[in-house]
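Board notes (copied after class):
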Amino acid sequence: MKKIVVSEIDYISNKFLCLPNVQKFEVVSRQEKKFISEIEMEDGYSFRMTGLLLDRVYPGTIVEILNQNEDVSVVVAPYISDRTAAICIDNGMGYFDYSGNCYYVGHSIYLSEKGNKNIVPRKIKTDTIFEKSSVVSSKILRMIFTDTNKCWRIKHLSEAVGCSIGQVSKVINYLQENAWIEKTKEGYKLLDPKGLIKEWSSTYGNKETRSFSTYCLNAPAALERKIADMKNEMGIDCYLTGFSGGVRYAPVVRYNKVHVYMFPKDIAEAMDYLSLKEVDSGANMIIYCLDNDSFIKDAKEIDGCKVVSPVQIYLDAMQLKGRGEELAEAVYNKEIRR
């Protein structure tokens, strides 16, 4: 560990000494994870900079340092994510990683380098709570988003979702490490709900949901009326999402394609009832396979049709080309943000 510490401090020193207005960079104090350097400028002015050497750094690590009011100017770690870097920059803290990416501003010094490919393997679990296959995590997140201002206790979340305290703790720990949530006296509260759901939608879209692209002669409005009739006549559940579901919450876009969720066992019968044909192009109705019920949690009936929750609308609309992101933003502002 000492070799790494020395080499990293030397690396930081070289970064500063490459600047024409810096004359000297000297380490005046060094501990296991902390060092203090004295930097002398060309005009003779000198100041001290405190740095932390960390094996791992999460966004939550930076938030914790800031909350403790520690006199830390820079953090140094093998890997620093874009989100961690953004939190550092927003709060006037510098950073250096082992790949040459860095940021520091102060005392007429400006250091900034980014885009270098990380040469140190990230020792952080890559599969996250945001995957479509993470059904329990999805239900916990959806419960938290029913009230973005509420403080949640782990036990209450466990009871509300119907899962173990251990499963809830795992999700909460992940959110806390990544500075999406904070612990208060009343419980855990979202710090950045907008950022969280946007990150969720980004990972959520990495894997496509099984779907059928279909076409019929009916216009969207007529097709949606037939979907409502289908429930009454055939007992087949069909849940609007995407543009056709989103406009039920926030009518901000026009659309010519209907998006729905159906249970796989009902799809063939529904296609027959709705006079749908599967096509390779020109589809005006997309049927997503409802492989688990997390997609339809908190669904509502609006204008005679079942519609997925605002959270599900956001996740799905963010994957759609055209004005999908605009619709997602409108639904977020009207239905999710409190």
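Comment from the instructor: Residues 2-17 form the longest helix (16 residues). The CA atoms of residues 156 and 179 lie 21 Å apart.
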